[in-house]
Design brief:
Number of helices: 2
Order of helices and strands: HH
Distance between the termini: 20 Å
Shape: elongated
Helix content: over 70%
Length: 59
């Protein structure tokens, strides 16, 4: 996995989460339907991985 691949997957997951949240009435920034929760967890996991990699590269 390259850095660009991780960044692309992180950005794609963020967009998928935003798109779902904007179209799903039960979803908000603090409450999510099961699908919204799954999309958020994928986004958060990829974001954490990307940010951790950025921090490690700065050392």
């Amino acid at each position: 996995m390259t850095r660009d691949d991780l960044f692309d997957r992180y950005q794609t997951a963020a967009a998928a989460h935003r798109t779902h949240r904007d179209a799903c009435t039960p979803c908000s920034d603090t409450s999510r339907c099961p699908t919204g929760q799954q999309l958020y967890e994928v986004f958060a996991r990829l974001q954490d991985a990307y940010l951790n990699r950025q921090r490690q590269q700065r050392r």
